[in-house]
Amino acid sequence: MNTESSVSSIKSLCVYCGSNPGRQPVYATAARALAQALVRRNIRLVYGGASVGIMGVVADAVLQLGGEAVGVIPEALLRKEVAHHHLTELHVTKSMHERKMRMAELSDGFIALPGGIGTLEEIFEVWTWAQLGFHHKPCGLLNVAGYYDALAAFLDHTMTEQFVKPPHRSMLLVESDPEALVEKFFQYQPPVVTKWVEKDAEC
Ligand code: AMP
């Protein structure tokens, strides 16, 4: 994947989000607000290519506002007829792994709106890649109505227990307001830190 830091020019952002709408309308409202924040800055949406749940809401909102929405979907999900057929581009991949790699390559940063297992897996994967220095792009949670409060608290616990270094924890930005999160992405400076424990420190 492209290892360049692209914070100075964010042209495309990847949004991971639920294939379900969630229990409260506030999730769809936040998805539309995020779409607005992207289109206002001429940022292209990259996402999982589905028409369902919060995924469909964010893509529809971007398109309605005159922005560009690029979907990346594996063949298996395309066959299940959940694909959105009115996107600016729809990339079809052989596998989920290829799909996630393509989404990452097409994007200058990664945002998780509220979602389920797929959303969590996707944002954790790109955050892991950031920790390893495979890319230097910003990653963030859009903490709509406190959806990610418990997760953020647990992530602080992983730091307290010294499984995650503070600079690596700080790589995952958490904001409740879409505008503020996108603004933070533009300000993002990747921390200079190695994942690896120094040989001397191990003894
Ligand atoms: P989840 O959070 O479990 O609903 O999964 C949503 C995330 O996983 C999205 O960001 C997608 O990339 C992927 N995903 C899960 N289900 C689907 C689906 N039915 N169609 C397309 N992508 C999906």
* Secondary-structure class: alpha/beta
Helix tally equals 9
Element order: H for helix, E for strand = EHEHEHEHEHEHHEHH
Radius of gyration, whole Å: 17 Å
> Approximately how much helix is present in the residues?
40-55%
Number of strands: 7
What quaternary form is this? single chain
At the first level of CATH, what is the class? Answer: Alpha Beta
Please state how the strands of the largest beta sheet are arranged side by side.
4-3-2-1-5-6-7
What is the overall shape?
A: globular
List its salient traits.
203 residues; alpha/beta; Rossmann fold; 9 helices; 7 strands; 43% helix; 15% strand; binds adenosine monophosphate
What would you note in describing this structure?
- α1 packs parallel to α2.
- A 7-stranded parallel sheet has the order 4-3-2-1-5-6-7, sandwiched between helices.
- Helix content is 43%, strand content 15%.
- The chain has a single domain, classed as 3-Layer(aba) Sandwich (Rossmann fold).
- By secondary structure, it is an alpha/beta fold.
- The protein is built from 9 helices and 7 strands.
- The N and C termini lie far apart (35 Å).
- The structure holds adenosine monophosphate.
- Adenosine monophosphate (AMP) binds next to α5.
- Adenosine monophosphate binds next to α5.
